[in-house]
UniProtKB/TrEMBL annotation:
<keyword id="KW-0057">Aromatic amino acid biosynthesis</keyword>
<dbReference type="InterPro" id="IPR013785">
    <property type="entry name" value="Aldolase_TIM"/>
</dbReference>
<keyword id="KW-0028">Amino-acid biosynthesis</keyword>
<dbReference type="Pfam" id="PF00793">
    <property type="entry name" value="DAHP_synth_1"/>
</dbReference>
<dbReference type="GO" id="GO:0009073">
    <property type="term" value="P:aromatic amino acid family biosynthetic process"/>
</dbReference>
<dbReference type="GO" id="GO:0008652">
    <property type="term" value="P:amino acid biosynthetic process"/>
</dbReference>
<protein>
    <recommendedName>
        <fullName>Phospho-2-dehydro-3-deoxyheptonate aldolase</fullName>
        <ecNumber>2.5.1.54</ecNumber>
    </recommendedName>
</protein>
<keyword id="KW-0808">Transferase</keyword>
<dbReference type="GO" id="GO:0003849">
    <property type="term" value="F:3-deoxy-7-phosphoheptulonate synthase activity"/>
</dbReference>
<comment type="pathway">
    <text>Metabolic intermediate biosynthesis; chorismate biosynthesis; chorismate from D-erythrose 4-phosphate and phosphoenolpyruvate: step 1/7.</text>
</comment>
<dbReference type="GO" id="GO:0005737">
    <property type="term" value="C:cytoplasm"/>
</dbReference>
<dbReference type="GO" id="GO:0042802">
    <property type="term" value="F:identical protein binding"/>
</dbReference>
<comment type="similarity">
    <text>Belongs to the class-I DAHP synthase family.</text>
</comment>
<comment type="function">
    <text>Stereospecific condensation of phosphoenolpyruvate (PEP) and D-erythrose-4-phosphate (E4P) giving rise to 3-deoxy-D-arabino-heptulosonate-7-phosphate (DAHP).</text>
</comment>
<feature type="domain" description="DAHP synthetase I/KDSA">
    <location>
        <begin position="58"/>
        <end position="353"/>
    </location>
</feature>
<dbReference type="InterPro" id="IPR006219">
    <property type="entry name" value="DAHP_synth_1"/>
</dbReference>
<dbReference type="InterPro" id="IPR006218">
    <property type="entry name" value="DAHP1/KDSA"/>
</dbReference>
């Protein structure tokens, strides 16, 4: 049996010359577990499901302004080593109660990475970091890790990049992002319209807010789209629309957009479109000029704007790992250092979060 026959349902397992199936010579397929199989193997308990429902409500309340705290999505640019990610999560879980009167901390658990051209695409795609592309293991490892983070009491956030992957993980999430490279994609907007969790759309890499506001309007609508069901079968998916989307300012090719004038302009743009002004500032990426050590200054500015009355600012995102900086992917990796974008180390992160909470209290 050849590789194509092995993935076909029995009904179409006829000799290949008898059916009109064209297989591109540049494409091979291998079966993966279905979302239902993985969810059964790594189930979400009733208790954790209840916790995640409550955490989604808590995130919604902050985004809606019913809860005056600041949402903080914080964690590694990407997770490449489950051990250091859990080490980080334990530290974050220990800090959370200390600042919870002012900050709602959410663990950034990014397991898929959008690349400008090519590069390592994340734990889901290549968990062994060697190009072997063991995606079955990547899905299982990512789900296990998110379950463990949830068990620590942390709300979990990720970027949803490949819509097929969402079905394996979305029950574990309290917040998700659609990245700068995919906010304009109809397929991602359709996916978000069927997610029962708050989702931030980032502005484009060129700095344009229009694609994110269009995305919010599209995702708020009901859609019918192509997808798969939990059994992995092709399916017509009908979605109800997601009212819990918001704008994430991440800067663009022209520079940052976290300053007071840019935030006010973004707010006015949302209001003009009749969209509730809910804004998150990504302190990293083009807002920090990709220098992770500039994130504290961005956070400080956002806190100052909040204190000056800019109440459209509902949250921030920080790229942070155990240690400052980044390293290239090699066989001799330093523990707790990002292998994608540079991160602020834990010591600095903990200090600025405590300081932000103190300033907001004051
Ligand atoms: O956050 C991560 C990166 O900015 C994003 O994945 C793009 O990375 P790249 O430009 O290095 O491919
Ligand atoms: C890729 C990311 O961000 P952006 O889409 O803003 O580049 C990210 O947050 O990891």
């Amino acid at each position: 049996m050849n590789s194509l026959q092995s993935v076909l349902p029995t009904a179409v397992q006829q000799p290949l010359h008898a059916i009109a199936l064209e297989v591109a010579p540049s494409r091979r397929t291998q079966p993966l577990p279905t979302p239902a199989e993985l969810r059964q193997r790594l189930p979400l308990s009733h208790e954790l499901a209840r916790q995640i429902r409550a955490q989604r409500e808590a995130v919604r309340a902050v985004l809606d302004g019913e809860d005056a705290r600041l949402l903080v999505v914080v964690g590694p640019c990407s997770i490449h080593d489950p051990e250091s990610a859990l080490d980080y999560a334990r530290r974050l879980a220990a800090l959370a109660p200390e600042v919870s009167d002012q900050l709602l901390l959410v663990m950034r658990a990014y397991v898929e990475k959008p690349r400008t051209t090519v590069g390592w695409k994340g734990l889901v795609y290549d968990p062994h970091l060697d190009g072997s592309g063991d995606m079955a293991e990547g899905l299982a490892l990512s789900r296990r890790l998110m379950l463990e983070m949830a068990e620590l009491g942390l709300p979990v956030a990720t970027e949803l990049l490949q819509p097929l992957v969402a079905g394996y993980l979305d029950d574990l999430l309290s917040w998700a992002a659609i990245g700068a490279r995919t906010s304009e994609s109809q397929i991602h907007r359709e996916m978000v319209s069927g997610l029962d969790l708050p989702v931030g759309f980032k502005n484009g890499t060129d700095g344009s807010l229009g694609i994110a506001t269009d995305a919010m309007r599209s995702a708020a609508h009901a859609h019918q789209h192509f997808g798969i069901d939990v059994q992995g079968r092709p399916a017509l998916v009908e979605t109800a629309g997601n009212a819990d989307t918001h704008l994430v300012l991440r800067g663009g090719h022209q520079g940052p957009n976290f300053d007071a004038a840019s935030v006010q302009a973004a707010r006015a743009g949302l209001e003009k479109l009749g969209i509730a002004p809910r804004i998150l500032v990504d302190c990293s990426h083009a807002n920090s000029g990709k220098d992770p050590l500039r994130q504290p200054a961005v956070l400080e500015d956002v806190i100052a704007q909040r204190l000056a009355g800019q109440d459209a600012l509902r949250g921030v995102m920080l790229e942070s790992h155990l240690f400052d900086g980044a390293q290239s992917l090699s066989c001799d990796l330093r523990y707790g250092v990002s292998i994608t974008d540079g991160c602020l180390g834990w010591a600095g992160t903990e200090a600025i979060l405590r300081e932000a909470a103190a300033r907001l209290r004051g």
